[in-house]
Design brief:
The complex is a heterodimer of chains A (about 270) and B (about 350). Chain A is about 80% helix and about 0% strand. The longest helix of chain A is centred in the N-terminal third of the chain and has 34 residues. Chain A has a domain of about 160 residues: MetI-like (MetI-like fold). Chain B is mainly alpha-helical and about 350 residues long. Helix content of chain B is about 75%, strand content about 0%. Chain B is flat and about 75 Å long. Chains A and B meet through helix 1, helix 3, helix 4, helix 5 and helix 6 of A and helix 1, helix 2, helix 3, helix 5 and helix 6 of B.
């Protein structure tokens, strides 16, 4: 009985810690004072949301974030897929080194990936005469994909562990070409992993700050605009934006979980 | 690219290593004769094989290895205007590292106490936060993995996934709303009559440390949960039937089994904490010491990129040392940490 009570208190404390700050911030978005405050609650307002909509640079940042997110998905999912397939076939003596290389971005702080990407491409574009490519947009896509492709690769690897190679052999015996096996057997089998990888790649790109803040140069994304705003001063408009982002995140997370449920049930059965 | 020799080394070295492995594998296949597996192209078909090679070469070499090597080389050069790069002044130098240690490119009589102190604080506090996060997460991870019913686990998981995807800046902002001088906690304390003047939580780094603990708590949760979940419940039952007290069950059965999860969570939390940028920028007071903002200032205030690269490398080496320490301590392999 006492242990049940202790467990209940612990759960309450844990989830209070997890959601409390977010709830408090959410309340400030609807309160009238111009400094984010919860108490006293002086009056309900939606003005802070309207303010956001007329904020030009925030909107431009949002547009860039969405576009970069899509490009990162388009780049890092194929890279991760190739990385995982090569991992299953690579010459055994090279595997350790290869694994170290392609997994290292996961264990490297994001700021360092951003810094090395900028330094490297600044000189490479200058020496090869492709200076127009040296833009924040291009570098952010590359920098983020560097480590997001590793996430994708790990997702593909875990699904490939359960891949039944006899399916491939059956198809080959029936006269399929290697390329047909890839398109009609392997890729359909990996489709759920591709979906997971795409969702996780997009979310990781959208919320990334550490790599982006270096790689973005003169361009802007939602997170870099947001960071600038927060450092300038406290306004409930940021709380309002947080409420919107949390709302969208919750919807996306729920949709993702629901979409994955049939697959999980199959895996459990 | 001042020195042609190192430039060749950086740009041709990694492909050369890859080539050596390819040649070794060809030689080995020759020796195996008829028993050999079909080669890479025969196994995947030409179009797919070319896609795999191009994609992996681009990713592993052009995106990962070359930028890193280039950054290392860059950090050993002086800061020069573009016109002088490659000229006689572009030499190899330890000046950037000397600056980190002594606060001056050539005078070594005094330690650079601000930066060294910030570095030490960053490493030390990140370790503490890692331990705190483990302590906070372990009970819930254990309950979800071994005690709770499946339906309850699904619901708890969903509750955990939602805050996981909220970006760092908004989390830091939420903590600023809580801890600011005009913030919620101060307003409550004053309202309750406990204090008269607001407490400067930001200046005292309370907000920063709380915010960092908050930001990465779920990074510890998921690997820990996955590791404990794979433990066969019968082992716990058996120990209990044999009269083991609860703490011995945890210390001698659950924890040893969950070791890879602990190692993985600890590495990631430490790395993210030590490399955190948003939280110290937003939650730090004027005297806050954290290493990442100093790296940031090398680039955006001092405009000294080579020095910034050197500082970034110092941080990277600290993180690598921590990964190696964890691997040694927990006796786990890299593939168990990065999942």
């Amino acid at each position: 009985m006492i242990s049940r009570l202790a467990l209940g208190l612990y759960l309450l404390a844990f989830f209070g810690f997890l959601f409390g700050p977010l709830l408090v911030m959410g309340v400030t978005a609807f309160n009238t004072p111009s400094y984010p405050q919860v108490w006293p609650f002086e009056g309900f307002t939606l003005d802070w949301f309207a303010k956001l909509y007329s904020d030009q640079s925030l909107m431009a940042g949002l547009q860039n974030s969405l576009l970069i997110g899509v490009l990162v998905v388009a780049l890092s999912v194929p890279l991760g897929l190739a990385g995982a397939l090569v991992m299953t076939q690579i010459y055994p003596r090279a595997r350790g080194l290869y694994y170290l290389v392609v997994v290292s971005p996961v264990l490297t702080p994001g700021v360092i990936i951003g810094i090395s990407t900028v330094i490297f491409w600044k000189d490479v574009t200058a020496f090869t005469g492709t200076k127009p490519l040296f833009t924040g947009f291009f570098l952010t896509t590359l920098g983020q994909s560097t480590f997001i492709a590793s996430y994708c690769m790990l997702i593909f690897l875990s699904r490939l562990q359960r891949y039944d190679r006899t399916q491939e052999e059956a198809a080959l015996d029936l006269g399929a070409s290697r390329t047909q096996v890839f398109w009609h057997i392997l890729l359909p089998y990996l489709r759920p992993a591709m979906f997971s990888a795409a969702v996780i790649a997009f979310l990781s790109s959208f919320e990334n700050y550490n790599t982006t803040t270096f790689a973005i140069l003169a361009d802007k994304t939602l997170t870099t605009v947001l960071a600038g705003r927060v450092r300038q001063g406290m306004t409930p408009a940021i709380s309002a934006l947080a409420v919107i982002i949390i709302g969208v995140t919750v919807a996306a997370a729920l949709a993702y979980e629901i979409a994955r449920r049939p697959e999980r049930r199959k895996a459990a059965a | 690219m001042s020195n042609a020799f190192t430039a060749y080394l950086i740009f041709l070295g990694p492909p050369a290593v890859a080539l050596v492995f390819v040649l070794m594998s060809i030689a080995e296949r020759r020796r195996a004769g008829a028993l050999a597996q079909p080669n890479f192209f025969a196994r995947n078909g030409w179009p797919v094989a070319i896609f795999l090679i191009v994609a992996v070469a681009f990713w592993a070499l052009v995106m990962i290895v070359l930028p890193s090597l280039y950054m290392i080389d860059y950090s050993f050069h002086p800061k020069l205007p573009p016109s002088q790069r490659g000229g006689p002044k572009d030499i190899y130098t330890l000046a950037n590292y000397r600056y980190f240690l002594f606060g001056s490119p050539d005078d070594t009589s005094q330690w650079n106490s601000t930066h060294l102190h910030a570095f030490w604080i960053t490493i030390f506090v990140s370790m503490i936060i890692t331990v705190v996060n483990f302590a906070v997460c372990y009970p819930l991870a254990y309950v979800m993995a071994q005690v709770a019913r499946p339906a309850a686990v699904t619901r708890l998981m969903l509750l955990l996934v939602i805050p996981y995807w909220i970006n760092e800046i908004l989390r830091a902002f939420a903590f600023r709303v809580l801890f600011g001088t005009g913030g919620v906690i101060n307003a409550m304390l004053i309202g309750a009559g406990l204090i008269h003047d607001p407490i400067d939580f930001l200046g005292a780094d309370v907000a920063l440390y709380a915010g960092l603990t908050y930001a990465y708590v779920l990074i510890m949760m998921f690997p820990l949960y996955n590791a404990i979940e794979s433990l066969d419940r019968n082992q716990i039952e058996a120990a209990r039937d044999l009269g083991a007290p609860w703490w011995r069950i945890h210390a001698e059965i659950v924890l040893p089994h969950a070791k890879p999860g602990v190692a993985s969570g600890a590495t990631l939390v430490f790395m993210l904490c030590a490399g955190a940028l948003a939280a110290p920028l937003i939650l730090g007071g004027p005297k806050t010491l954290w290493f990442t903002p100093i790296v940031y200032d090398r680039f955006f205030q001092a405009f000294n990129w080579p020095q910034g690269a050197a500082y970034a490398l110092v941080l990277l080496i600290a993180c690598m040392a921590f990964v190696l320490l964890v691997m040694r301590l927990f006796k786990v392999s890299l593939s168990e940490i990065a999942r």
